Amino acid sequence: MTASNGSCATKTAEPQAIDLRLCYSVDLMRAYSNQGALTSTLKKLRERVSDQQKRRLTAKVQKVHALARRLSETDRAQIIAAYEGGTSANQLASDHQLAKGSILEILRTGGAAIRQQRRLSSEEIDQAIVSYQDGQSLATIAEQLGVQAATVRSALVRRGVPRRDSHGRPR
C-alpha cells in the first residue's frame, strides 16, 4: 500500500492502519537527509571565510604604522628645521597629527638637540599651591607660569596637595 504520493509503502493487510503522518515524516526526512549539496556549500563558505580572515590578518600586518614609512625625508627635515627654529614639540605634534613622542623620536634620529623641558622652580610651585588653594584652576595657573596645566598638576601632586574636583563636587 502506498500513500497518495506513492512514497510510503506498507505490506499490511489493513490499509486503514497506515499512519499518514509517518509517511510525510519519512518524506520530509528523506528530502533533508541528502545533504551532499549543503555540505559542499558549507565547506565552500567556510573556505571563503577562512580566506577572508587570512587576508584581513595580512592586511593588518601590512598597515603602515612605522614613522619611517608614514613620513618622507622632506617631512622629517621640515620637522627638524621647525623645531630648531623655535617651534615647540607639542605644536609640531599638533601640526603633523603625531604624538609628541613620535616628534621627539624624529628629532633624536635626525640629530637635533632637544631643548630642556620647562620645569617649575620651588618658588613657582609654592606660588602655584597658594593660587590653587585660593580656587584658581590649573589652566589659569599654568597660563600665568607659562607652562602646561599637566606640569602644574604634577608639581602639586609631588608636593602632596589634594586635588579639587573639576566640577566643584566634594571629593
Descriptive report:
The protein is elongated. The chain starts with 19 loop residues before the first helix and ends in a 13-residue tail after the last helix. The chain has helices at 20-33, 36-62, 67-70, 73-84, 89-96, 100-109, 122-133, 138-145, 149-158. By secondary structure, it is mostly helical. Residues 1-7 have low confidence and may be disordered. The protein contains nine helices and no strands.
Quick description:
By secondary structure, this protein is an all-alpha fold.
Q: Helical region count? A: 9
Query: Which series of helices and strands comes N to C?
Result: HHHHHHHHH
Give the uncertain stretches in residue-range form: 1-7
Distance between termini? 87 Å
Tell me the fraction of residues in β-strands, as a range: under 5%
DSSP strand count: 0
The assigned structural class equals mainly alpha
Instruction: Give helix % range.
Output: 55-70%
Determine Rg (CA atoms, Å): 38 Å
Instruction: Give average pLDDT, whole number.
Output: 77
Q: Which shape, going by the Cα principal axes?
A: elongated
Largest sheet geometry: none
Based on the model shown, name its key terms:
disordered N terminus; mainly alpha; 171 residues; single chain
What order do the helices and strands come in, and which of them pair?
Layout: H1 20-33, H2 36-62, H3 67-70, H4 73-84, H5 89-96, H6 100-109, H7 122-133, H8 138-145, H9 149-158
Helix pairs in contact: 5-6, 7-8, 8-9
